[in-house]
Amino acid sequence: MKKVVKGILLSILMSIVYMIINGISHSILPFSEWFVTNSMKQETNLGLTMIYMLAISGTIYFITQHARCKGKELYMAVIGSVFFTLSFMTQIETIIFGSAFEGLSLHDILLMVLGDFISISLTGLLYILILKRKTQEHEIMTIDWKKFVKCLLLNGLIYMVIYFIFGYFVAWKSEDLRIFYSGSAEDPGFFYRLYVNARDNFIIYPIQYVRGILFTLGIIPLMRIRWKSKYGFMISVCAVFLCTGMGLIVPNFLFPDAVRLAH
User: Fold this and answer.
1) Count H helices, E strands: the chain?
2) Which residue of 11, 185, 190, 222 sits 20 to 30 Å from the alpha carbon of 151, by its own alpha carbon?
3) Which of 66, 67, 97 is nearest to 171 (CA)?
4) pLDDT of 210-253, one tens digit each?
5) What are the residue boundaries of the structural domains of the chain, listed by start?
6) ∠ CA(15), CA(224), CA(58), 5° rounding?
7) Pick from 156, 150, 143: which is nearest to 216 by CA?
């Protein structure tokens, strides 16, 4: 019980630290005038922001407590999985649908990624230093790459199928979201939507297939280290991906609230 309380308190403390680092890094980076002006207009929901930061901080803490490796190996696993999945993969989609975000430049997107990297890497480093986890030898796991490549290719297909099914039957049911991305509120049906994508934007299919592969690659850093139990590994993977979605609970100027919540 004492360890649980300690973990909760440390996660709360580190979420505050993460929020401060994130705020500082994003304030000093040279974002465009458009980005700065619009971000200043957005009202900050401190409660939801804190929940999101706590989810990230708690995920990092959980990984550090359930992995057997320490020091550099643990740090690289945390940064590799959390940053790659949480920020890098998220902003790839921002680039893909960049036309929907009028005024947002590639320069701003890359700076958002850099700001996230600074925040996640420094928070992860503080965790390692606070917990005083030093490196142990022989902690790197071997991976059956032949089997992994097969899973990689299959997961790309599975992700693409899930993306379009859930994208249509959940997110696309929002009229606000349809207007935001297509400019029209019409909903002619699932298969017609697939046809329109194939006709007007066929590249979306291979892009989402590759994204599925990249998301799978994002867990390699976690696969390469030893765990106290397989459940610790499974929960860590789920927590990392959950953080990606939880970012949408925080209001931001890029998405109208109805569109953000529809995601």
Assistant:
1) 13, 0
2) 190
3) 97
4) 999 998 888 888 888 888 888 989 999 999 988 888 888 888 88
5) 1-139+226-256, 142-223
6) 15
7) 156
Q: Say how far apart CA 89 and CA 176 lie, in whole Å.
A: 24
Say whether pTM exceeds 0.85.
no
Which residues, 6 or more positions from 86, have their beta carbon under 8 angstroms from its beta carbon?
56, 116, 120, 240, 243, 244, 247
Q: Which amino acid is at 100?
A: A
Q: Could you tell me how many residues make up the chain? A: 263
Is residue 50 a contact partner of residue 19, using CB atoms and an 8 Å limit? yes
Query: What is the phi/psi pair of residue 42, to 5°?
Result: -75, 125
CB-based contacts of 80, cutoff 8 Å, min separation 6: 218, 220, 221
- Separation of CA 95 from chain center: 15
